[in-house]
Amino acid sequence: MLRTHTCGELRLSDVNKSVTLTGWAQRTRDKGSLLWIDLRDRYGITQLFLEEGKTDAPTLQLARSIGREYVLKVQGTVVERLSKNDKMPTGDIEIKVSSLEVLNPSKVPPFTIEDNTDGGDDLRMKYRYLDLRRNPVRENLQLRHKMAQQTRVYLDGLNFIEVETPVLIKSTPEGARDFVVPSRMNPGEFYALPQSPQTFKQLLMVSGFDRYYQIVKCFRDEDLRADRQPEFTQIDCEMAFISQEDILNTFEGLVRHLFKHVKGIDLPAVPHMSYAEAMKSYGSDKPDTRFEMKFEELNDLAQGKGFQVFDSAELVVGICAKGCAEYTRKQLDELTEFVKKPQIGAKGLVYVQCKADGSFKSSVDKFYSGEDLKKWAGKFNAQPGDLLLILSGERTKTQKALNELRLKMGDLLGLRDKNKFAALWVIDFPLLEWNEETNRWHAMHHPFTSPKREDLHLLDSQPGQVRANAYDMVINGTEVGGGSIRIHDRPTQQLMFTKLGFSEAEAKKQFGFLMDAFEFGAPPHGGIAFGFDRLCSLFGGADSIRDFIAFPKNNAGRDMMIDTPSTISQEQLDELGIDVKEAKE
Amino acid sequence: MLRTHTCGELRLSDVNKSVTLTGWAQRTRDKGSLLWIDLRDRYGITQLFLEEGKTDAPTLQLARSIGREYVLKVQGTVVERLSKNDKMPTGDIEIKVSSLEVLNPSKVPPFTIEDNTDGGDDLRMKYRYLDLRRNPVRENLQLRHKMAQQTRVYLDGLNFIEVETPVLIKSTPEGARDFVVPSRMNPGEFYALPQSPQTFKQLLMVSGFDRYYQIVKCFRDEDLRADRQPEFTQIDCEMAFISQEDILNTFEGLVRHLFKHVKGIDLPAVPHMSYAEAMKSYGSDKPDTRFEMKFEELNDLAQGKGFQVFDSAELVVGICAKGCAEYTRKQLDELTEFVKKPQIGAKGLVYVQCKADGSFKSSVDKFYSGEDLKKWAGKFNAQPGDLLLILSGERTKTQKALNELRLKMGDLLGLRDKNKFAALWVIDFPLLEWNEETNRWHAMHHPFTSPKREDLHLLDSQPGQVRANAYDMVINGTEVGGGSIRIHDRPTQQLMFTKLGFSEAEAKKQFGFLMDAFEFGAPPHGGIAFGFDRLCSLFGGADSIRDFIAFPKNNAGRDMMIDTPSTISQEQLDELGIDVKEAKE
Questions:
Q1: Shortest Cα distance from B25 to chain A (angstroms)?
Q2: What is the model's pTM?
Q3: Domains (ranges, CATH) in chain A?
Q4: Which of B4, B66, B132, B181 is best to mutate for the A interface (most A CBs within 10 A)?
Q5: pLDDT digits (tens, 9 = 90+) for A389-399
Q6: Nearest to A384 by CA among A326, A317, A330, A302
Q7: Nearest by Cα to A349 from A327, A318, A379, A371
């Protein structure tokens, strides 16, 4: 090694040792006869020290020429600092430099390599290799490494086998769009990149591998949002000879293990909530349960009193914001504007202030007496000082809008602390959901999810009412994982494909191998996949996954650093037997 | 769990326990009043036992209907066997069945699920999920998992960080062909799948990550040989602030750790051998050093005696096969035929038999006296009973042919035991090699490999003589890993691209980001990549990598099970803005 120690490890007990360090010049302070350099590497910062008259002149001169981010190799002696810095682990010592070598100079970096950099997003992405030098970004990737390690510790300990599944697979356009790869050896044919290893992990169960996992890259060619990436990583798991409870227990165990060993947090047992209950009480299939503020439905109390808006609504539903009764007109107007934003879509907001004196004031006093409002308040168990916020309209839309308002109130009231974690299993999802665009039923989870046996009789008459053996793990209002108990027999799988509008030929072309496999002794099985990027960002207390990925792409799917995608040569196109179409006018 | 125990864990100490097992029916023996079923899962086999009169009639009837590979759930009591089977861990006990459930029936599998199956290669690949049920294949994948685990244990212990690098990168056609992925969001542009994470790991060094690894999928669109796959896995590593010796020591440590913890073998320290020495003594840059049989050059002794074939040859070189002096005419003819095969390419084979009585007999007695031949034998330190085998001709071709003959003799003499392991570092590879097809110099390792400083002056005059800081790890004649100390400054990298025939624009388009990065404080760095599939097959004592990959592709790059590559829809092509060309007549 070019160094004897890292920049993070020397202490008072090392005083008088001769050491060699390597690293980057973080900053230089030149006080005339005295010169200090902060030398940085992945492990920390160590202060170097040179003194006119004591350090030899050429070394001192060289040191004075050093700019930010120069790569240095330094020999010297560990000495005790006169003025110690108790904010850094190496703050008790410094290195009296005897020799100095510039291993590589650096141009002035386009932004500062500091925790709070002056670099904008685009610049940081273009020079990602410099951005990765910054502590917060590096620490995110170290956290990610630790998460992967601990995931393996837990699953290896339970006899799971990590098996690598192929990346060059077959296009099966159900679900999101596939990325495809033209095959040179089979002209006119294509591989696809996996959206998940779903069918392969099921085949591994058919093979008897019984407990499988993989931390694996997956790919979806979707129009990107801020927190989506075309390639992303899953903790992908599957088990055979299990019930749904076994899966929930095993992977609740994983999440609790990660909290314990990565963050030192004892996560309590994870409650279960049905999809129906989540929608009713939170208007969301991924409720943030760090705070209560549950929905209460008011149809029985609020309808039939002449207030046309409520009377004509499918649902009248509200939340109680503790201690917000004294919100000003302006604050209440802002909340009204918030719910009326097109992406929220409510037509208006009704409020009831529960005054300190026990009286009530509402925006609908014209229609409702104090006695009426008192009954409403009773339903929420509201106390004097609380504020009721009520929306009405079509059931699903109103629930969704109130969910947004609830989350906003949670933010305003400081109830969504990033250092507090509330996990939840949402279970009993619907099997199917109606898609307005394609005018047919789609699988809510995926076509391999098994319906609940007791609901199967509804499949023809009320397909939307059939529940699936499907579950999501939700933490702080974010879906971090989801899975299901799978279909493991050919007739049910075939029925499912039929319900989803596959012709028999399509089903056979795309998934014939899986249905064949089900006929050779497929065991009951099920599994789950966690979004690893998302889980890491959640553990890191961040909103975006991007800084938990070493080399992310931007919202146009572009890597700004290496500048890809890019054109390829005509020779490559010819070998692949494809043409690029003329751009449309 | 549907089971209380696996099929591999019950012992005498469990006798009288009530248990529930699940698994596959391996075989049934029906002796009239007694019926046995071997129940198999990933963990082993447990014998089930039913008896007429004691087992209830419907259960017995059901048991009699069970075919191979049916999936069963069985309840019963552990009892001691009357006739024990000491060949299986559960051989002391059997299960007296009280209830039996068929979880899923099975069609008759297309081949037997036995260690030695009757299934041919194509059938096994098409029904890979059944092939994976066989012990040898499952054990290969379990070995692979253990190899990955122990690789991580070793590297994590040395502060390496696993960082995921992107899969959707940029096409850089130097080297093998890229697989490409059309970008829908950037019509006319393509991503490429990585042949290795080379540039990204170097950028991580520029970022200060200092010790990186990744067990990662890589992709090469090459015409496939039996032991190549279009997607394969590397243990990919890089270190900064190191010398070549540091890399060799660190990764020799990895290989020895794997031998120790996966196979229980103490591998001795790994010797170093220069490329020049390897070629001279073994005619190969990946010599099998499980046995000696080194080359000896005979030009000085064999030329000038009137034997035109030797006199006109650039190289006369031979090996000594211990104890083979009494090979018959037929055996010697077979060896001659072997070396004359087109893929070996020698014109003929000269032999010298060192007779037990101290005399010599050769195929060139006409030209050489007993005294001459004695001198030859002396050079090999040959003993009575040994056989010298000698080839001649152009240096490189003759070395390669003799290498093949040496390996063949090693096989014939049983010197290539799959349970014996000899590792070797081959170092000091040439930087460049001349490519006859493209009529230019190519990088022997890759364009990022640094030349030896002391050879740099030869770069213009004798480019073929410049050695690189490049090294391969060779085990039993197989290259299992290779790497180099990298260039870390822009001028040298630019010079290298120029030597390789890149225009400045090409170099900038493809690798500008890397050369830019070198200007912002790039540390000295280097690394290595191990072929993980190959390493696993070596540890497993197998020749082919295919059975160490869960779902491999055949030699046409096709996955026979899922039948990919395959056509995609016109809608998909349209969205991607590409056309498939008409097939050529």
A1: 9
A2: 0.96
A3: 12-104 (2.40.50.140), 138-273+423-571 (3.30.930.10), 291-412 (3.30.1360.30)
A4: B181
A5: 999 999 999 99
A6: A326
A7: A318
